[in-house]
């Protein structure tokens, strides 16, 4: 243990999987809250029109609330629209409202439609790098699709984290996701890498969970975090109180496992090859 190390530069990590319900949002908000709780400065970009990450972090995201839509479509500045999470110090959120659902279509005819988030984020991080409180981590929570929103996220990041639910069909669709990552890497963002796989909703009592975990570890090897997130009622309850499990029940196994996963991610910054 000890403090989580600060990365040498801001790490931008996209949480992606086109399957819904695998734990993307839960992972984005709880890893972010774990790091922020350890003094790292973190921004969560909610890129899902459902706004689940905004809800879990207790940040307003009604239809009238400007957020990531205005950044993508209207060129607004991230720092003008992000808001502090009221319950966790060091954690800010760029909220998503249902308006974002239209962006998938509205972006189509736009110039450089795949790199609008990248431009906004790069410019923002450039301005932010001089600030007293420069961000250590940016997590982008993706919608459950491989459309333009997810492509924008992949183009803007250096790392992808894939949560995999330890259930039947866990690996279904992964090859399509990996092809999309490779395509973005080839055509838009050569510095992108699939850095992290996180097993979620792991149930130690079932052979199924163990089987999925084995299969994922065989296939991905070192990218898979040692920590698996257990299936936990406390984790699933937290969002209905506009909380992360980290604040809702800090000593629960779910909370401790997210803290452990966050630590593994933070520790990887010190072993990452310079590029
Ligand atoms: P995604 O963002 O990939 O659609 P979510 O993070 O929203 O997935 O998770 C889907 C559902 O499963 C949510 O209701 C969430 O509260 C619940 N959930 C996520 N992780 C766990 C877990 N480890 N244990 C129990 N429920 C979980
Ligand atoms: Mg989600």
Relative strand content: 5-15%
Q: What summary fits the major beta sheet?
A: 7 strands, mixed
Q: What strand order characterises the main sheet?
A: 3-4-2-5-1-6-7
Structural class: alpha/beta
- Count of runs of 4 or more consecutive helical residues: 12
Count up the domains: 1
User: Low-confidence runs (pLDDT<50, min 5 residues)?
Assistant: none
How does this structure look, described?
The protein has helices at about 25-35, 50-55, 70-75, 80, 100-105, 115-130, 150-155, 175-185, 205-220, 235, 245-250, 255-270, and strands at about 10-15, 40-45, 85, 90-95, 135-140, 160-165, 195-200. The protein has one domain (about 10-265): Rossmann fold (3-Layer(aba) Sandwich). The model has no long low-confidence stretch (mean pLDDT about 95). About 50% of the residues are buried. By secondary structure, it is of the alpha/beta class. The longest helix has 19 residues, at about 255-270. It contains twelve helices and seven strands. Helix 1 (about 25-35) crosses helix 12 (about 255-270) and helix 6 (about 115-130) packs parallel to helix 7. The chain has a seven-stranded mixed sheet with strand order 3-4-2-5-1-6-7, with helices on both faces. It starts with 10 loop residues before the first strand and ends with a helix. It is globular and about 50 Å long. Bound molecules: adenosine-5'-diphosphate and magnesium ion. Magnesium ion binds near residues 24, 25 and 52.
